[in-house]
Amino acid sequence: MKFLRYIVLSYACVATLGVNAQSDRAFVRQGNRLYRQQVFDKAEVEYRKALSKNASNPQALYNLGCALMMQNKDSAAIVQYENAAKVEQGKIRKAKIYHNMGVICQRHQMFAEAIKAYEESLRNNPADNETRYNLALCKRQQKQQQGGGQDNKDDKNKDKKKQQKQQQEKQEQKPEQQQPKEQMSKENAEQLLNAAMQEEKATQQRMKEKMRQPQRRQLQKNW
User: H helices within the chain, ranges in order?
Assistant: First the structure.
């Protein structure tokens, strides 16, 4: 079974200077521990704390996007990935950001956007086979989606033509269908006429018999 592959928590810690930097790095480490325990909502809180100390921390932005993604908060995750892509300088790490953006778009069948994200990821890291796999799958899905739309259009046209043809055939068949009805009417008339003639003969026969019977009785009575 084919599936999307996403990349999480593969950032290397970036050493920075200053008290605030030390503080935001501590929150990131705590968030990473919670993330590995799959407590994604609490990991999200820690990453947000890190960003409150240093809003330009690319690792906090990226990992926050991952935590949101694992909670199916895809729209919010995309925002964080975009923010991370703006401040991230390392090509390998930037490739991972665009890779996960592609995964989200592909999951929502936004194939054109997903393809752009995967291609941007490969520009930053051409050796990433995971991204290349997803890109190939995404392009195939896009073709299927476009082909499905065309097939539906063709099916509607076929159904319309079929209905028109059936309606035309019905109209052509109407005169032919009336002829058997006329023939059946003639046959019924002949049958009724024959039945009437037979009934008439039978009635005349009965009348003759009735006319004879009184005469016989009268003769017998006179004897």
Answer: 19-36, 40-53, 58-70, 74-87, 91-107, 111-124, 129-222
DSSP string computed for 133-177: HHHHHHHHHHHHHHHHHHHHHHHHHHHHHHHHHHHHHHHHHHHHH
What dihedral do alpha carbons 178, 181, 185, 190 form, nearest 10°?
A: 110
Residue 4 sits at φ, ψ, to 5 deg, of -80, 145
Reported as half-sphere exposure (CB side, CA atoms, 13 A), residue 158 has a value of 6
Give this prediction's pTM: 0.61
- The per-residue pLDDT for 74 is 95
Distance CA 4, CA 68 (A): 17
pLDDT at 180: 41
Phi, psi of 48 (to 5 degrees): -70, -35
Confirm if 3 and 19 have CB atoms less than 8 A apart.
Answer: no
Collapse the DSSP code of 10 into the 3-class scheme (helix H, G, I; strand E, B; otherwise coil) and give the result.
coil
Structure token digits, residue 156: 């509607």
Contacts of 31 by beta carbon, 8 Å cutoff, 6+ apart: 43, 44, 45, 46, 47, 50, 60, 63, 64, 67
Of the candidates 14, 10, 100, the one whose C-alpha atom is nearest the C-alpha of residue 57 is: 14
Best-predicted range by mean pLDDT (4-8, 187-191, 212-216): 187-191
| Residue 174: predicted pLDDT | 46
Q: Is residue 171 packed enough to be buried (19+ CB in 10 Å), middle (13-18) or exposed (0-12)?
A: exposed
Determine the Cα–Cα distance for residues 133 and 150; give it in Å rounded to an integer. Answer: 26
